[in-house]
Structure formats: C-alpha cells, structure tokens
Amino acid sequence: MQPTGLLRAGALLYSRDLKLAFRRWEQVTQPVVFFLMVTTLFPLALSPDTAQLRQVAAGIVWVAALLSALLALEFMFRSDYEDGTLEQLVLSGQPLWWLALVKALAHWTVSGLPLVVASPLVAASLAVPTEAQATVVVSLILGTGILSFLGAVGAGLTLGVRRGSVLLSLLVLPLTMPALIFGARAVDLSIMGDSSRGPLLLLTAMFILSLTLGPFATSAALKVSME
Fold it and tell me: In this predicted structure, what is the pLDDT of residue 173?
C-alpha cells in the first residue's frame, strides 16, 4: 500500500466525518455544553471562596471533561454501521487500523478539541491561577486524546449491542482512571505552584501507548462486531 494512498484515504475519511458531524450539531455542542454546565454549577453549589475552589478545581475540570467526551463515543461508528458505510470501509482494501485511527482523530476534533478550547474559561471560573491554565490545557489535550483512542476500542466492541451506551461506559471509564488520576494531579500541583512535569510525562506515555496500540485493538474489535 502506497503512503500517498493511505494519506489520501485518511484525509477523505477525516473530512467526511467532520462534515457529517457538523450537520448534526447536537453531537458537536452536547459535550461542550455539558462541560460548561457542570463546571459552572460547582462554584454555585460550593462557595465563591477562592481557596476552596482551587482545592477542588482539578478534580472538577477532569471529571467533567471525561464525562463530556464520553457522551459522543457511542456515535463514532454507529451511523456508519447502520447505513452500511463501515462494511464498505472494511472491504475498501485500506488497513482497518488506519481507518480506525482517522475516525478516532475525527472524534477528538469534534468532541475533545472544543473542551480544550473552553478549558481556560472554565479554569478561570474555578479560580485557577493564570500560570496554571497552560497545564490545564496540555493535560486535557492528552486526556481527551487518550479517551478517544481507548473509547474507539469500546465503541467497536459494543457496535452490535442494542443500547450499548451503558456497556460502553463500563468498558471505557475504568481504562481512563489512570489518566484521570495523573491529569488531575498535574493540574493540582500546578495550582499549588509546584512542578507538574512528572504527572504530565506519565500522561504523555499513556497517550503514546493508546495512540500506537488503540487503532489495532479497535480494528480487531470492529472485525469481531461485524462477523
């Protein structure tokens, strides 16, 4: 398979997925609206005290971001499976792991990237210091990427299951717990003025691992679901 052929097929699939996603605005806006609503409610429910908000800011941002990104996971392969497009992709002659990687990237662009863009505003509302907001952004880029690549595996496994959203959550959330722990710890250390390098390096290692192994696991999951 020529590299140019792979790149062209990937570019076409990526462009197609983005166009379809923006035709269904609820899939694009639902995660970011949920993220903004949840993080806005916490200061109202707790206290406007800056010190108290900073103590819980890291956990609030990360839990809300992971749950928000999880909302769109079920739709990663569902519509393609129902209209027969996924079967055509399997028979296209292109490596299935490559197509799974491209679809995971498209999912991150639609569901993860808006959360990253909104995160400085959310961090400011939770009294996160300005110097710590860069850590919030970097950690969420890595964390939402991990969720997209690991979530693709779960979405592939639950493809043929009716109402598989609950099962998908049960499969994916335990796998993302290490990312949640290290990501929230990195933000917490940055808020306290300490170095967040250690947790961010561990988060980066998890991201690279999910990026390299996730597409192959997703490919196997799709083949099992379509048999």
Answer: 85
